[in-house]
User: Fold Homoserine dehydrogenase from Candidatus Copromonas faecavium.
Amino acid sequence: MKAAIMGYGTIGSGVFEVLNRNREIIAKKAGEPIDPVRILDLRDFPGDPAERLIVHEIDEILKDEAIGIVVETMGGTSPAYEFVRNCLLAGKHVVTSNKALVAAHGTELLAIAKKMGVSFLFEASVGGGIPIIRTINESLAGEQIEEISGILNGTTNYILTKMCEEGWSFGDALKKAQEMGYAERNPEADIEGQDTCRKIAILTAVASGKEVDYREIPTEGISRISDLDFSYAARMGAAIKLFGFSRMMDGNVYMEAAPVFIDVKNPLYSVDGVFNGILVKGNMLGTSMYYGSGAGKLPTASAVVGDMIEAVRRTCDPTAPGWSEEKLCISPASLLPRKYFARFEGSRAEKKEAVEAAFGRVKWMVLEGLDEFAVLTSPMTGAEFDAAAEKIGGLRQKIAAEL
Ligand code: HSE
Assistant:
């Protein structure tokens, strides 16, 4: 089948490389060769192996009836949404790595694909090279999924690891993540948690079969994590990780994208660097974990090519991952009782009474020479925490803790 790639950046060029390097294996698995014949990009690439395939107009792909499958690796929603929509309406399969697109327009694009009898696949949109979407959709098809939690953003996990273990500055770690091709074009989406938010929205939609509006998920990134938080974490033997979380319970789904303290008992504790790790809890299987490279050129391209083979092999698979137009009702995870790590200004001696009156028994942590202290509370809801912290005054940090 003839293929086109829209967007010849880090991932798009990776897809071209995988299709060429693994050409024979791919042809065998797909039942026919998959040949890239057009690559859409605004730029030219003189001297690049793909130079002769570069086109600058989407019509060169849309109007070429020989092209049966299109890869979208442009990122962002505009013009990716219009281009993908038009490719599907032109009867072409589409495979994308673009979580912003899938989270914002997945419901409509899935419906168009179904109507047109083509595939719209997006394995690479979550977890980079980790096969998680097809796993939830197929291998765990007999499960009632109860909880999904995971480290879903390679850039922030890389930054947190380098800051914590090697003492790098935030800026240096981010710069390196950008150089390695992990970060989004605008890394704010990584840093402020939106990328994690979109990914947990997609996983939850696949698991529940219902649309998840990612804008309803409480989202927080890592920009307010400080060196001091790492010092307290080290004292407690804990790691700070950015989690995407959803718990499906009693007909409700509680969701969040936010940093969390975890300890060595959590299997995600040692998921470091650009790696992602995802825990999925099913009502029969219990907890299973999926681990691998969460970002980067070839791991992500590998997941894209896996989807291309799937689309070519099955042409159109009615059981492919997706969800209906029915909307899932989302509640904030802060309604669930959880422990909190919190730092307050002042000294333990002067605030001890107020802290114990507000929180009851807590675990105390004091670092020498600072005009502040930290506590680990017993489980409580976010609202209960806020009310108690208000009574004490001088709150400097609050992070949920699974300790
Ligand atoms: N910027 C994303 C990350 C790329 O760092 O995880 C992979 O989706």
